[in-house]
Amino acid sequence: MDNQTNTRKPWSFYMCSLTFSFERAAYYSSKWLVVAFLTAALVNGGLGIDKGDAAVMQSYFVAATYAAPVVMSFIADRYIGARYLIPVGLLLMAVGYAYQGYVGTKESLWIMISLVGVGTGFFKANLSSLTGTLFKTSGEKDSAFSTQYSFVNIGSFVGTTAVGILYVSLATSEQSGYLQCFKLAGLLCLLGAVWFVIGYKSLGDAGKIPFKAGEEKVVEVKQEKRSLEPYEVRRVLSILLISIFSIIFWLFWYFTYLAVYDYAPKYVNFNIGSFEIPTAWFDSENALLCIALGPILGALWLRLSKRPKGDLSLYKKLGIGLFLLGASFLMLIGAEFQRGIGSPETNKASLMWIIMFGILLSLGEMVFSPLGNAFVSKYSPKHLLSTMMSVWVAATFFATLCYGQVYKAISQLDFMYAYSLITVVLCLLGILLFVFDKKLASLVELREGETLVE
Q1: Secondary structure (DSSP) of 85-107
Q2: pLDDT computed for residue 302 by the predictor
Q3: Strand (E) positions, 243-333?
Protein backbone atom coordinates (compact mmCIF):
# COMPACT_ATOMS: atom_id res chain seq x y z
CA MET A 1 0.00 0.00 0.00
CA ASP A 2 2.87 2.37 0.85
CA ASN A 3 4.52 1.73 -2.52
CA GLN A 4 1.29 2.61 -4.24
CA THR A 5 1.11 5.89 -2.37
CA ASN A 6 4.73 6.75 -3.20
CA THR A 7 4.20 6.27 -6.91
CA ARG A 8 1.02 8.34 -7.06
CA LYS A 9 1.56 11.72 -8.66
CA PRO A 10 -0.20 14.87 -7.42
CA TRP A 11 -3.03 16.45 -9.41
CA SER A 12 -0.84 19.51 -9.98
CA PHE A 13 1.49 17.34 -12.10
CA TYR A 14 -1.34 16.22 -14.39
CA MET A 15 -2.58 19.80 -14.59
CA CYS A 16 0.87 20.93 -15.79
CA SER A 17 1.21 17.99 -18.20
CA LEU A 18 -2.17 18.63 -19.81
CA THR A 19 -1.14 22.28 -20.25
CA PHE A 20 1.86 20.96 -22.18
CA SER A 21 -0.49 18.89 -24.36
CA PHE A 22 -2.50 22.00 -25.32
CA GLU A 23 0.65 23.89 -26.33
CA ARG A 24 2.28 20.98 -28.20
CA ALA A 25 -0.92 20.31 -30.15
CA ALA A 26 -0.79 23.92 -31.37
CA TYR A 27 2.97 23.85 -32.07
CA TYR A 28 3.21 20.57 -34.01
CA SER A 29 0.15 21.29 -36.12
CA SER A 30 1.56 24.75 -36.93
CA LYS A 31 4.96 23.29 -37.85
CA TRP A 32 3.20 21.41 -40.65
CA LEU A 33 0.90 24.34 -41.47
CA VAL A 34 3.83 26.71 -42.11
CA VAL A 35 5.14 24.62 -45.03
CA ALA A 36 1.71 23.55 -46.33
CA PHE A 37 0.36 27.11 -46.31
CA LEU A 38 3.41 28.71 -47.91
CA THR A 39 3.79 26.16 -50.72
CA ALA A 40 0.11 25.67 -51.58
CA ALA A 41 -0.99 27.45 -54.75
CA LEU A 42 -2.91 30.74 -54.43
CA VAL A 43 -6.02 29.10 -55.84
CA ASN A 44 -5.88 26.55 -52.99
CA GLY A 45 -5.59 29.17 -50.27
CA GLY A 46 -1.80 29.19 -49.98
CA LEU A 47 0.87 31.71 -50.95
CA GLY A 48 2.53 29.74 -53.76
CA ILE A 49 6.03 30.30 -52.33
CA ASP A 50 9.02 28.24 -53.46
CA LYS A 51 9.43 25.04 -51.40
CA GLY A 52 13.04 25.91 -50.53
CA ASP A 53 12.06 29.28 -49.06
CA ALA A 54 9.19 27.63 -47.18
CA ALA A 55 11.62 25.10 -45.72
CA VAL A 56 13.86 27.92 -44.47
CA MET A 57 10.92 29.69 -42.80
CA GLN A 58 9.84 26.49 -41.07
CA SER A 59 13.38 25.92 -39.78
CA TYR A 60 13.44 29.45 -38.33
CA PHE A 61 10.10 28.76 -36.65
CA VAL A 62 11.48 25.59 -35.03
CA ALA A 63 14.83 27.21 -34.15
CA ALA A 64 13.09 30.12 -32.39
CA THR A 65 11.36 27.66 -30.03
CA TYR A 66 14.75 26.19 -29.06
CA ALA A 67 16.66 29.43 -28.62
CA ALA A 68 14.07 31.47 -26.72
CA PRO A 69 13.79 29.24 -23.61
CA VAL A 70 17.55 29.53 -23.05
CA VAL A 71 17.44 33.32 -23.38
CA MET A 72 14.22 33.97 -21.45
CA SER A 73 14.56 31.48 -18.57
CA PHE A 74 16.69 33.92 -16.55
CA ILE A 75 13.53 35.96 -15.85
CA ALA A 76 11.99 33.12 -13.83
CA ASP A 77 15.35 32.58 -12.15
CA ARG A 78 15.66 36.14 -10.89
CA TYR A 79 12.54 38.25 -11.20
CA ILE A 80 9.12 36.59 -11.58
CA GLY A 81 7.72 33.26 -10.41
CA ALA A 82 7.39 30.62 -13.14
CA ARG A 83 3.65 30.09 -12.56
CA TYR A 84 2.98 33.67 -13.68
CA LEU A 85 5.20 33.50 -16.78
CA ILE A 86 3.71 30.24 -18.11
CA PRO A 87 0.25 31.69 -18.96
CA VAL A 88 1.92 34.86 -20.31
CA GLY A 89 3.87 32.65 -22.71
CA LEU A 90 0.72 30.82 -23.76
CA LEU A 91 -1.11 34.09 -24.38
CA LEU A 92 1.75 35.42 -26.53
CA MET A 93 1.65 32.23 -28.58
CA ALA A 94 -2.13 32.48 -28.86
CA VAL A 95 -1.83 36.04 -30.22
CA GLY A 96 0.89 34.97 -32.68
CA TYR A 97 -1.06 32.04 -34.11
CA ALA A 98 -4.34 34.01 -34.24
CA TYR A 99 -2.66 36.99 -35.93
CA GLN A 100 -1.40 34.73 -38.70
CA GLY A 101 -4.84 33.17 -38.94
CA TYR A 102 -6.52 36.55 -39.51
CA VAL A 103 -3.87 38.24 -41.68
CA GLY A 104 -2.40 35.30 -43.61
CA THR A 105 0.61 36.87 -45.33
CA LYS A 106 4.30 36.01 -45.46
CA GLU A 107 5.04 39.13 -43.40
CA SER A 108 2.51 38.18 -40.72
CA LEU A 109 4.13 34.76 -40.53
CA TRP A 110 7.37 36.41 -39.38
CA ILE A 111 5.39 38.18 -36.63
CA MET A 112 3.88 34.83 -35.64
CA ILE A 113 7.35 33.23 -35.49
CA SER A 114 8.59 36.06 -33.25
CA LEU A 115 5.62 35.94 -30.86
CA VAL A 116 5.61 32.13 -30.65
CA GLY A 117 9.37 32.16 -30.06
CA VAL A 118 9.13 34.62 -27.15
CA GLY A 119 6.05 32.84 -25.81
CA THR A 120 7.85 29.51 -25.89
CA GLY A 121 10.71 31.16 -24.02
CA PHE A 122 8.36 32.02 -21.15
CA PHE A 123 6.50 28.72 -21.31
CA LYS A 124 8.59 25.66 -22.12
CA ALA A 125 11.55 25.64 -19.72
CA ASN A 126 9.50 27.18 -16.90
CA LEU A 127 6.79 24.51 -17.08
CA SER A 128 9.43 21.75 -17.01
CA SER A 129 11.20 23.41 -14.10
CA LEU A 130 7.93 23.88 -12.23
CA THR A 131 7.15 20.19 -12.73
CA GLY A 132 10.51 19.33 -11.17
CA THR A 133 9.69 21.29 -8.01
CA LEU A 134 6.60 19.11 -7.41
CA PHE A 135 8.80 16.07 -6.62
CA LYS A 136 11.54 15.49 -4.09
CA THR A 137 13.65 12.52 -5.19
CA SER A 138 15.58 11.92 -8.41
CA GLY A 139 13.58 8.75 -9.09
CA GLU A 140 10.25 10.57 -8.73
CA LYS A 141 11.45 13.31 -11.09
CA ASP A 142 12.66 10.80 -13.70
CA SER A 143 9.29 9.07 -13.62
CA ALA A 144 7.42 12.40 -13.80
CA PHE A 145 9.35 13.70 -16.82
CA SER A 146 8.97 10.36 -18.59
CA THR A 147 5.19 10.55 -18.08
CA GLN A 148 5.11 14.21 -19.13
CA TYR A 149 6.92 13.29 -22.35
CA SER A 150 3.94 11.04 -23.13
CA PHE A 151 1.61 14.03 -22.68
CA VAL A 152 3.82 15.97 -25.12
CA ASN A 153 3.44 13.23 -27.73
CA ILE A 154 -0.29 12.94 -27.07
CA GLY A 155 -0.60 16.67 -27.79
CA SER A 156 1.46 16.26 -30.95
CA PHE A 157 -0.63 13.30 -32.10
CA VAL A 158 -3.98 14.99 -31.46
CA GLY A 159 -2.89 18.31 -33.03
CA THR A 160 -1.42 16.93 -36.26
CA THR A 161 -4.17 14.32 -36.69
CA ALA A 162 -6.94 16.89 -36.26
CA VAL A 163 -5.38 19.59 -38.42
CA GLY A 164 -4.93 17.11 -41.27
CA ILE A 165 -8.71 16.91 -41.59
CA LEU A 166 -9.76 20.32 -40.31
CA TYR A 167 -7.80 22.42 -42.80
CA VAL A 168 -10.15 21.10 -45.51
CA SER A 169 -13.40 21.12 -43.53
CA LEU A 170 -12.79 24.60 -42.05
CA ALA A 171 -12.20 26.28 -45.39
CA THR A 172 -14.77 28.96 -46.29
CA SER A 173 -15.41 31.01 -49.42
CA GLU A 174 -13.38 33.88 -47.94
CA GLN A 175 -10.60 32.08 -46.07
CA SER A 176 -8.52 28.96 -46.56
CA GLY A 177 -8.57 26.08 -44.12
CA TYR A 178 -4.91 26.81 -43.38
CA LEU A 179 -5.76 30.17 -41.84
CA GLN A 180 -8.63 28.70 -39.84
CA CYS A 181 -6.24 26.10 -38.43
CA PHE A 182 -3.78 28.81 -37.33
CA LYS A 183 -6.71 30.37 -35.45
CA LEU A 184 -7.44 26.98 -33.91
CA ALA A 185 -3.80 26.76 -32.75
CA GLY A 186 -4.26 30.13 -31.09
CA LEU A 187 -7.42 28.90 -29.39
CA LEU A 188 -5.59 25.84 -28.05
CA CYS A 189 -2.95 28.06 -26.43
CA LEU A 190 -5.65 30.31 -24.99
CA LEU A 191 -7.44 27.28 -23.51
CA GLY A 192 -4.10 26.09 -22.12
CA ALA A 193 -3.57 29.43 -20.38
CA VAL A 194 -7.08 29.42 -18.88
CA TRP A 195 -6.70 25.79 -17.77
CA PHE A 196 -3.36 26.56 -16.09
CA VAL A 197 -4.64 29.64 -14.26
CA ILE A 198 -7.65 27.67 -13.01
CA GLY A 199 -5.20 25.04 -11.73
CA TYR A 200 -3.10 27.57 -9.75
CA LYS A 201 -4.60 26.38 -6.46
CA SER A 202 -3.32 22.82 -6.92
CA LEU A 203 0.28 24.10 -7.14
CA GLY A 204 0.35 25.33 -3.56
CA ASP A 205 3.34 27.66 -3.26
CA ALA A 206 5.24 26.14 -6.19
CA GLY A 207 6.36 28.71 -8.74
CA LYS A 208 5.25 31.77 -6.77
CA ILE A 209 8.72 33.23 -6.32
CA PRO A 210 11.80 33.31 -8.61
CA PHE A 211 13.81 30.09 -8.53
CA LYS A 212 16.97 31.78 -7.25
CA ALA A 213 14.98 33.28 -4.40
CA GLY A 214 14.29 29.92 -2.86
CA GLU A 215 13.15 27.29 -5.33
CA GLU A 216 15.50 24.88 -7.03
CA LYS A 217 15.59 24.90 -10.81
CA VAL A 218 18.99 23.44 -11.52
CA VAL A 219 21.83 22.36 -9.29
CA GLU A 220 24.14 25.30 -8.83
CA VAL A 221 27.78 24.46 -9.43
CA LYS A 222 30.44 26.65 -7.89
CA GLN A 223 32.73 27.90 -10.62
CA GLU A 224 36.36 26.97 -10.16
CA LYS A 225 39.21 28.72 -11.96
CA ARG A 226 41.75 26.03 -12.75
CA SER A 227 43.28 24.17 -15.67
CA LEU A 228 41.59 21.01 -16.82
CA GLU A 229 43.11 17.69 -15.86
CA PRO A 230 44.00 15.39 -18.79
CA TYR A 231 41.02 13.11 -18.11
CA GLU A 232 38.74 16.20 -18.08
CA VAL A 233 40.12 17.34 -21.43
CA ARG A 234 39.24 13.92 -22.86
CA ARG A 235 35.69 14.18 -21.50
CA VAL A 236 35.18 17.68 -22.88
CA LEU A 237 36.44 16.38 -26.24
CA SER A 238 33.93 13.52 -26.01
CA ILE A 239 31.04 15.91 -25.32
CA LEU A 240 32.08 18.14 -28.24
CA LEU A 241 32.29 15.09 -30.51
CA ILE A 242 28.85 13.84 -29.47
CA SER A 243 27.48 17.38 -30.01
CA ILE A 244 28.78 17.38 -33.60
CA PHE A 245 27.08 14.05 -34.27
CA SER A 246 23.96 15.43 -32.59
CA ILE A 247 23.92 18.33 -35.09
CA ILE A 248 24.09 15.86 -37.97
CA PHE A 249 21.35 13.66 -36.47
CA TRP A 250 18.85 16.44 -35.76
CA LEU A 251 19.58 18.34 -38.96
CA PHE A 252 18.57 15.33 -41.08
CA TRP A 253 15.82 14.27 -38.66
CA TYR A 254 14.01 17.57 -39.28
CA PHE A 255 15.00 17.40 -42.94
CA THR A 256 13.00 14.14 -43.33
CA TYR A 257 9.68 15.91 -42.75
CA LEU A 258 10.34 18.39 -45.54
CA ALA A 259 11.30 15.51 -47.82
CA VAL A 260 8.00 13.75 -47.12
CA TYR A 261 5.92 16.94 -47.44
CA ASP A 262 7.52 17.57 -50.85
CA TYR A 263 7.81 14.08 -52.36
CA ALA A 264 4.83 12.14 -50.99
CA PRO A 265 1.87 14.23 -52.24
CA LYS A 266 3.17 14.06 -55.80
CA TYR A 267 4.56 10.55 -56.07
CA VAL A 268 2.89 8.39 -53.40
CA ASN A 269 -0.68 7.10 -53.40
CA PHE A 270 -2.18 8.65 -50.26
CA ASN A 271 -5.71 7.50 -51.05
CA ILE A 272 -7.58 4.80 -49.17
CA GLY A 273 -10.76 4.46 -51.15
CA SER A 274 -12.10 7.98 -51.61
CA PHE A 275 -10.27 9.36 -48.55
CA GLU A 276 -6.95 11.14 -49.06
CA ILE A 277 -4.62 10.82 -46.07
CA PRO A 278 -3.21 14.27 -45.12
CA THR A 279 0.60 14.58 -45.05
CA ALA A 280 0.22 16.00 -41.53
CA TRP A 281 -0.49 12.44 -40.42
CA PHE A 282 3.18 11.62 -41.02
CA ASP A 283 3.80 13.77 -37.92
CA SER A 284 0.96 11.92 -36.18
CA GLU A 285 2.62 8.59 -36.95
CA ASN A 286 5.82 9.80 -35.29
CA ALA A 287 3.98 10.93 -32.15
CA LEU A 288 2.02 7.69 -31.88
CA LEU A 289 5.15 5.58 -32.34
CA CYS A 290 7.03 7.59 -29.69
CA ILE A 291 4.19 6.93 -27.22
CA ALA A 292 4.28 3.21 -28.03
CA LEU A 293 8.07 2.80 -28.24
CA GLY A 294 8.94 4.65 -25.02
CA PRO A 295 8.04 1.85 -22.56
CA ILE A 296 9.36 -0.86 -24.91
CA LEU A 297 12.80 0.72 -25.35
CA GLY A 298 12.92 1.65 -21.67
CA ALA A 299 12.43 -2.01 -20.75
CA LEU A 300 15.04 -3.06 -23.32
CA TRP A 301 17.70 -0.66 -21.97
CA LEU A 302 16.94 -1.82 -18.42
CA ARG A 303 17.36 -5.45 -19.45
CA LEU A 304 20.62 -4.74 -21.27
CA SER A 305 21.95 -2.80 -18.27
CA LYS A 306 21.64 -5.96 -16.16
CA ARG A 307 24.02 -7.89 -18.44
CA PRO A 308 27.59 -8.50 -17.15
CA LYS A 309 28.92 -6.07 -19.78
CA GLY A 310 26.13 -3.58 -19.14
CA ASP A 311 24.02 -1.49 -21.50
CA LEU A 312 25.10 -0.29 -24.94
CA SER A 313 27.30 2.80 -24.86
CA LEU A 314 25.97 6.19 -25.96
CA TYR A 315 28.20 5.94 -29.04
CA LYS A 316 26.59 2.67 -30.11
CA LYS A 317 23.10 4.04 -29.49
CA LEU A 318 23.92 7.16 -31.50
CA GLY A 319 25.34 4.87 -34.19
CA ILE A 320 22.08 2.89 -34.26
CA GLY A 321 20.11 6.16 -34.39
CA LEU A 322 22.13 7.46 -37.37
CA PHE A 323 21.90 4.11 -39.17
CA LEU A 324 18.10 4.00 -38.72
CA LEU A 325 17.85 7.62 -39.88
CA GLY A 326 19.87 6.75 -42.98
CA ALA A 327 17.73 3.67 -43.60
CA SER A 328 14.60 5.83 -43.44
CA PHE A 329 15.82 7.82 -46.47
CA LEU A 330 16.27 4.49 -48.24
CA MET A 331 12.47 4.18 -48.14
CA LEU A 332 12.10 7.21 -50.42
CA ILE A 333 14.61 5.65 -52.81
CA GLY A 334 12.59 2.41 -52.71
CA ALA A 335 9.42 4.35 -53.48
CA GLU A 336 11.08 5.96 -56.50
CA PHE A 337 12.27 2.57 -57.78
CA GLN A 338 8.77 1.11 -57.40
CA ARG A 339 7.03 3.84 -59.39
CA GLY A 340 9.86 4.09 -61.95
CA ILE A 341 12.73 6.55 -61.63
CA GLY A 342 11.75 9.88 -63.13
CA SER A 343 8.26 8.70 -64.06
CA PRO A 344 5.42 11.24 -64.28
CA GLU A 345 3.27 12.00 -61.24
CA THR A 346 0.57 9.67 -62.50
CA ASN A 347 2.80 6.74 -61.48
CA LYS A 348 2.36 6.45 -57.71
CA ALA A 349 4.37 4.44 -55.15
CA SER A 350 2.75 2.49 -52.31
CA LEU A 351 1.93 4.28 -49.06
CA MET A 352 3.81 1.51 -47.20
CA TRP A 353 7.10 3.19 -48.14
CA ILE A 354 6.08 6.30 -46.19
CA ILE A 355 4.79 4.24 -43.25
CA MET A 356 8.13 2.39 -43.08
CA PHE A 357 9.93 5.74 -43.41
CA GLY A 358 8.10 6.96 -40.26
CA ILE A 359 8.80 3.75 -38.32
CA LEU A 360 12.56 3.87 -38.97
CA LEU A 361 12.69 7.61 -38.26
CA SER A 362 10.85 7.23 -34.93
CA LEU A 363 13.01 4.29 -33.86
CA GLY A 364 16.15 6.34 -34.54
CA GLU A 365 14.76 9.26 -32.54
CA MET A 366 13.79 7.15 -29.53
CA VAL A 367 17.16 5.37 -29.45
CA PHE A 368 19.18 8.59 -29.38
CA SER A 369 16.99 11.45 -28.17
CA PRO A 370 16.81 10.79 -24.38
CA LEU A 371 20.55 10.25 -23.90
CA GLY A 372 22.37 13.52 -24.48
CA ASN A 373 21.55 15.53 -21.35
CA ALA A 374 22.34 12.58 -19.09
CA PHE A 375 25.71 12.05 -20.83
CA VAL A 376 26.71 15.70 -20.47
CA SER A 377 25.66 15.91 -16.81
CA LYS A 378 27.57 12.71 -15.98
CA TYR A 379 30.87 13.41 -17.71
CA SER A 380 31.26 17.18 -17.85
CA PRO A 381 33.87 18.65 -15.49
CA LYS A 382 31.68 20.01 -12.71
CA HIS A 383 32.99 23.57 -12.97
CA LEU A 384 32.10 23.56 -16.70
CA LEU A 385 28.69 21.91 -16.40
CA SER A 386 26.69 24.99 -17.43
CA THR A 387 29.02 25.64 -20.36
CA MET A 388 28.81 22.05 -21.60
CA MET A 389 25.02 22.03 -21.26
CA SER A 390 24.96 25.23 -23.32
CA VAL A 391 27.08 23.52 -25.98
CA TRP A 392 24.57 20.66 -26.13
CA VAL A 393 21.60 23.04 -26.45
CA ALA A 394 23.48 25.11 -29.04
CA ALA A 395 24.04 21.97 -31.13
CA THR A 396 20.28 21.33 -31.39
CA PHE A 397 19.61 25.00 -32.10
CA PHE A 398 22.20 25.03 -34.89
CA ALA A 399 20.62 21.92 -36.46
CA THR A 400 17.13 23.44 -36.39
CA LEU A 401 18.41 26.74 -37.77
CA CYS A 402 20.17 25.12 -40.72
CA TYR A 403 18.03 22.21 -41.88
CA GLY A 404 15.84 24.44 -44.05
CA GLN A 405 18.84 25.92 -45.85
CA VAL A 406 20.29 22.42 -46.36
CA TYR A 407 16.99 21.21 -47.77
CA LYS A 408 16.77 24.20 -50.09
CA ALA A 409 20.24 23.41 -51.46
CA ILE A 410 19.71 19.65 -51.79
CA SER A 411 16.32 20.06 -53.47
CA GLN A 412 18.18 21.53 -56.46
CA LEU A 413 20.08 18.24 -56.98
CA ASP A 414 18.98 15.07 -58.73
CA PHE A 415 16.60 13.21 -56.41
CA MET A 416 18.22 9.74 -56.58
CA TYR A 417 21.75 11.12 -56.28
CA ALA A 418 20.93 13.39 -53.31
CA TYR A 419 18.97 10.86 -51.27
CA SER A 420 21.35 8.00 -52.01
CA LEU A 421 24.23 10.17 -50.82
CA ILE A 422 22.36 11.09 -47.60
CA THR A 423 21.59 7.41 -46.96
CA VAL A 424 25.21 6.33 -47.48
CA VAL A 425 26.69 9.12 -45.34
CA LEU A 426 24.32 8.58 -42.38
CA CYS A 427 24.67 4.78 -42.44
CA LEU A 428 28.45 5.05 -42.78
CA LEU A 429 28.64 7.41 -39.78
CA GLY A 430 26.53 4.96 -37.78
CA ILE A 431 28.85 2.08 -38.69
CA LEU A 432 31.97 4.12 -37.83
CA LEU A 433 30.60 4.85 -34.34
CA PHE A 434 30.21 1.11 -33.80
CA VAL A 435 33.69 0.33 -35.13
CA PHE A 436 35.41 2.96 -32.97
CA ASP A 437 33.16 2.51 -29.94
CA LYS A 438 35.91 1.23 -27.60
CA LYS A 439 38.28 4.02 -28.53
CA LEU A 440 35.57 6.64 -28.05
CA ALA A 441 34.42 5.07 -24.78
CA SER A 442 38.00 5.33 -23.47
CA LEU A 443 37.60 9.13 -23.52
CA VAL A 444 35.21 8.87 -20.58
CA GLU A 445 36.71 5.93 -18.70
CA LEU A 446 36.36 6.19 -14.94
CA ARG A 447 39.46 6.84 -12.91
CA GLU A 448 40.40 4.43 -10.16
CA GLY A 449 37.86 4.70 -7.34
CA GLU A 450 35.59 7.06 -9.29
CA THR A 451 31.86 6.47 -9.46
CA LEU A 452 29.15 8.34 -11.32
CA VAL A 453 25.61 8.99 -10.13
CA GLU A 454 23.22 7.62 -12.77
Answers
A1: HHHHHHHHHHHHHHHHHHH-SHH
A2: 75
A3: 271-272, 275-276
